[in-house]
């Protein structure tokens, strides 16, 4: 059963509608990521889950019970704040013990639980440090320890890693993931970094302007973005207008290509997504499309090559082979590299369509 | 660099000397056996003996201290709540206006405040004495406390109280265990400022003391008008030492070396 459920949740501040209609289910023991651009309402969702704000419409269920107006201090949810929000007048031990003391737990038990939590975040031996004797990464760990020591059902993390430098951030990503598996607690992690989302999550929810655009596993979302926004937001992509010819065939620049999508009305205007790493450069004769190289950028592992085709569309290609700026080249790709997106298709419609023809195929 | 530093040292020394000279002059003569400051006779404790035998003076000193402690404590409580409430006001203009009202009370001359309190108390029929002095001291201390506490309230992130609720705290627990410790530096500074303002207030007190009640500054003023009495010098010496102690206590226990805002009047 779902531990947490949003049903048509709305939230507005004054006349400013922040969340329009949010629906999702969160299962126990998984790592969820809410991904979206700045101002899309990610923090607002977390605040509704934590109980710092209440929704203006719809329902929030926790373990089957509606908790719309349940005060934050009665929810089995804990939060790791973006700015850590550690209590400056308390040392590391007292910060972590804060929640346990409020529960009037016995001293010995508190001692044990705090030490255990410190060990989990690799800070054993730091119990009696003052906060100003800690680095940013260590404060982050204390904030995590302070939350997990209460053994919540759901742990909320709001941009928990964004204040850390690149290297530390990568380290913490895998540590968090490991911690989640170890504890078996549901994590809901908020970020606007798509790379982070792809690397860490079981499930990603992509939110934009108060609506969930798409949710699914990282692979699903990367390979089958539902719409222009998701395709653009997740990874690098070429999004090119096209026309559906018939099932399993789409026309780009008037040329017909075999694809793996079906169930779309012939002649419908669609968009195709092609990932830069799926495109290969070849000779003009062998190429499916002809293009001219505009620029080339060496990025360590590969070159990012910008070209424009005979119809004037810009293409981004990632290749380990060098080319020459100004040269005419051919672009080639495989049928499964093409992903067709219909305009205004909802996730349910997309899933139904996928079902219909994949059933046929198999 | 060397040159400027000696110059500035000299400057500071001169300034401090000029400022402290009258006090040291007073202290010096408090040990003289004579009755005037015309010339130092010989060392003696007579004026101190007179001071400690002067029960009226002792009781006035106690009054002054009691008034100051009560006024500072109550003003700190009221002013701190005020600062917390001001920060809660959502509308910017309203918040700004409340602050302006607060600051007007800070800068308006004591004489005017004192006179208006006098009119106020006589209008209400409140007898002048302990209560009128206490009430007016509380009143003029509140804006000071608000001014000292408000920046700390502003600095306190909202996420801290959210974190407290998140960890299971009730409103009261979040308030007493997170908000109050978070603004404690401002509260302490406000309390000490209020204490010093109350201790040495003359103008306001002068208006609202009745016949039977007096504070130190008013008493010294009225005695000084009757002619010089070296008992006042002895008292000044004692007060000077007490102030030194207070300042020491304040810096020792409330102001960390790095934090700002450690203004002591
Ligand atoms: N208390 C509030 N009062 C009014 N507007 C608010 C309030 N809280 C948030 N908003 C508005 O709601 C919108 C969404 O805010 P939210 O904090 O959820 O965004 P976010 O997705 O977390 O963005 P970011 O990635 O920048 O943190 C913003 O436009 C913000 O201005
Ligand atoms: Mg946010």
TrEMBL record, chain A:
PROSITE patterns in UniProt: ABC_TRANSPORTER_1 (PS00211), ABC_TRANSPORTER_2 (PS50893)
Highest taxon, organism lineage: Bacteria
GO MF entry, a single one: ABC-type polyamine transporter activity
Residue ranges annotated for the ABC transporter domain, each copy included: 4-234
A single Gene Ontology CC term: ATP-binding cassette (ABC) transporter complex
Catalytic activity: ATP + H2O + polyamine-[polyamine-binding protein]Side 1 = ADP + phosphate + polyamineSide 2 + [polyamine-binding protein]Side 1
Role description: Part of the ABC transporter complex PotABCD involved in spermidine/putrescine import. Responsible for energy coupling to the transport system.
Protein family (similarity comment): Belongs to the ABC transporter superfamily. Spermidine/putrescine importer (TC 3.A.1.11.1) family.
Protein name: Spermidine/putrescine import ATP-binding protein PotA
Organism: Limosilactobacillus ingluviei DSM 15946
From TrEMBL, chain B:
Major localisation: membrane
One of the GO BP terms on file: transmembrane transport
CDD domains: TM_PBP2
Superkingdom classification of source: Bacteria
Domain spans labelled ABC transmembrane type-1: 61-250
Keyword Transmembrane helix set for record: yes
Coiled-coil region(s): none
InterPro entries tied to this protein: Bact_Polyamine_Transport, MetI-like, MetI-like_sf
Coiled coil among keywords: no
Gene Ontology CC annotation, any one: plasma membrane
Transmembrane segments: 12-31, 60-86, 98-124, 130-150, 232-251
Membrane topology: Multi-pass membrane protein
Keyword terms: Cell membrane, Membrane, Transmembrane, Transmembrane helix, Transport
Family annotation (Pfam families): BPD_transp_1
Compartment(s) of residence: Cell membrane
Family statement drawn from the similarity comment of this UniProt entry: Belongs to the binding-protein-dependent transport system permease family. CysTW subfamily.
Protein name: Spermidine putrescine ABC transporter permease
